[in-house]
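Practice set, problem 2.
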Amino acid sequence: MEQIPLLLDGFASALTPYNLLFVLIGAVLGTAVGVLPGLGSSMAVALLLPITFALDPTAAFIMFAGVYFGGLFGDSTAGILLNTPGQSSAIASTFEGHRMARNGRAAVALATAAIGAFIGGLISTTIVVFFSPVLVTMATEFGPAEYFALAVFAFLAISSVVSESVLRGIGALLLGVALALVGIDGPSGTERYSFGIPNLFDGIDIVVVTVGLLALGEVLHAASRIHRDPSSITLPTGGIARIGKQDFRKALPAWLRGSAFGAPFGMIPAGGAEVPTFLAYGTEKRLADRRQDPEFGKSGSIKGLAAPEAAANATAGTALGTLLALGLPTSATAAILLAAFQQYGMQPGPLLFQRSGELVWTLLASLFIGLVVLLLLNMLLAPVWARLLFIPQHYLYAGITVLAMLGVYATSSSYVDLYLLVGLGVLGFLMRRFGMPLAPLMIGVILGPLAETELRRALAVSEGDPSILVSSPITIGVYIVLVGIVVVSVVQHLRHAREDRRQQAA
């Protein structure tokens, strides 16, 4: 176990007052930027990248450790409180987290997210330290057919699990895939579904889709019911973010399940943390149906928040390990960090541990330190963020609308994106009104381009032979598990429908 002495040397370098100061600065700045709706962890790293150029490499990357996980901690805060996640990886956390916030448990929800992010990050960083050679070998086994199988798995598993109706789930998924097809087709350079509008040639930005469907859709839905349901938000009580023993026991298995989903996905470019967070959420939904949990989907389930939050940070931790060991960025944030390494004349990969071993192990040690700092910081700040819900409802939703418009316009300076935002907000309102789930649409938008690209690559390699899609043990195993999940889900839906008919007849 030669990693232990190297890690201890890294702690000796990181635990100096000078370096601890940069961990704290990075954690505060990363959390602050991550909390702002529409920005998120990748934007936090991008915005703070120029600040580090005046620092020596060790201090710079120690600060990045704080920024990296700080942005992830902050991503879910706006989603839980305002239903506007800072990044797409926090979307799954908003479904139950926002319900908890609306029912007076905002501080508990934020504390649950903070502990989940800590556990997921801790587990994944430990895996990176001790098992990165094995995980890197596993990552190299994935080709285009395996990536396509993962995308199909996410499509159908989410559509069949999180929706009360399989047909509605698949319908929402097809809407998401249709939105993902807008823009220039990469391999052929052909314009698709852009109606000749130059601003749509690059497709519809995920920020526009997320803010429009979740934030503006929620605003319109709340406005339509503000007189029918004037007390739809219960103000949080208590000033200290605490999780009781009973809630902790409920959340602990979900945190561990979420971490198990997230850690492997950080090593493969299969859509970042979105896939494991939605799969973790879908698993908790299926378990809740089996237990007949009255909180899930209604007042807010702590398990439905804990699992995706742990999955997101577990993915981020192993994504950083893949970047260091292979030089392969598997997320947007990791890609920005790759640019930071290159700015200092270093190329992540197997030789990085030999040429800059002291810096790498100091960075890994600072990740552990940053997680502890962020846990304490966010547990203390949770009641402060929860007080946002004391703002009167009409002012709160008006502020969300303004922030959504400003955030979208600031990212692109395009009026077309504002029109799209309004259109997607109306779509989100209609989907809520008619009981269509949002999760399949979001997963379709996020993974649609990946599925299309990998399918075309696989068919190009095989010269059009579709058997390549089921030619490896990994793909066969993925499809077998998928068929099992879909069959079980359909049986459960039919059973629930039969029980509902019996109750109505009675």
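Problem 2, part (b): a different protein.
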Amino acid sequence: MELSSSSGEAGQREGPGAGWLLSIVVPVMNEEAAISGFLQAVRDALDGHIARWEVLFIDDGSQDATLTSLRHAHAQDGRVRYLSLTRNFGKEAALSAGLAHARGDAIVPMDVDLQDPPEVILEFVRLWREEGFDMVYGVRGTRDEDTHTKRATAGLFYRFFNRMADTPIPHNAGDFRLMDRCVVDAINRLPERSRFMKGLFSWPGYRTTGVYYARPSRETGQSKFNYWKLWNFALDGVVSFSTWPLRIWSYFGAVIALIAFLYIVLLVGRVVLFGSDVPGYASLMTAILFFGGMQLLSIGVLGEYVGRLFVEAKHRPLYLVAEDSEMPRASRRRGDSEP
């Protein structure tokens, strides 16, 4: 079901018919039990509908037999490719690695847990091919598998982020989407190391639309995100796409300075009219603690931005590749790096 689109004329996307390639990018970590079921679901959904497709797994430092499962899957089906990173660099870096190595004319990032139904890809492709959209994102029509707290905090984050950021992101839209090659090329040119992919997906613009889908429960395993990781993820998003946390302290400081000036006038007036009085200990400590806390909080906000400047200034690679299914065996242990 189509949601909304940006302005512009929709039309049949030109292409060589069955000659185009679809790449599905799947970051995984400790997901050995989910690999075979995911691939079977993709085959069931795409075979007979899309002539050429590939699945590119990014093994983000798994400690179980995920890499062994990927090697076996690649040996059984040449449409399955994989990259194995040297350690766990995080999902955003793994997803960036997948986008950089995907070869398709259209690229679909998705999770291996089948909460992103592969059947929805066919509707993505239809809107891309027939309606001419450069990006088609999935919108979770239901989130019954999430707790009430998680649904509430997610809704608050989307509203808060879109009020503060110059680049809004769609509500209840995750990484699951189809992107034309031109969109992926634009994202691959973005140099930042602290990456909030939902924001980066929205930043290039282009013609976009959304598709509702029912999000089922996870098939196997458990989510790798906890509330602490989600909090840091949200913090990265706000700091990466908005300077309001810095600007608000300028306004706050101006308001406090005005109040302080008015209070000074009040104190001077009382002394002139009624003589001097001795201020109380409680009011003095309250003022000291309040302003001290505000100063520490503002320094902490400033530190978030300075810390990210420090990370960007070092220009370390986003990830290191330990093994690539497309590389000869003799060179797999070399450990290639990527910017």
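Answer key, part (b): Residues 37 and 302 are 46 Å apart (CA to CA). The beta strands are 2-5, 22-28, 53-59, 80-85, 106-109, 135-142, 173-180, 208-214, 319-324, 336-338.
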